[in-house]
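Lecture 7 notes: from sequence to structure.
We start with the chain below.
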Amino acid sequence: MMVLRLRCAGVSFRSILCLLLLVATLAGGCGKKGSPRAPELVMPVAISDLKLLLEDRSIRLGWSHPRKALDGQPLTDLEAFVVYRKSTAADCPDCRAAYSERAVINVEDEGRFFKQSDYGFTDTELRTGTVYRYRVRVRLSDGSLSRPSNEVSIVWRQR
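Predicted structure tokens for the same chain:
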């Protein structure tokens, strides 16, 4: 049985092979191009154009699709919009109440070339004499949420 032994200036073939594998591994990196981004900067810019429209027996909310993260980079992993509502009696508008999740509007065009530009939600579960306040947050695919949008409010009176 013949054993092949290579030696280059006193260095074994195994040492050279290990060195080449180490260099190839380090040169490959993680595959991502560009500098790492801080998690808080990857968050989307909060919605700032939330609008409220009165319809026949409902309240219609509308807002535009955010396109950028806080660091100015394009937003690529938008999953949904979460609508929050807070309600108090009209005769006590300053009473303390917490926002609760009212609806989740899924975004289904993230991979498409043409994206929907405006979104909305219609609230039909309303009581006369109640003050309703709304906010919307953007949810990313990892579950993280943007800051709340601007607040819109109305005292509901049956039409």
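Points to note: The CA atoms of residues 90 and 129 lie 5 Å apart. The mean pLDDT is 81.
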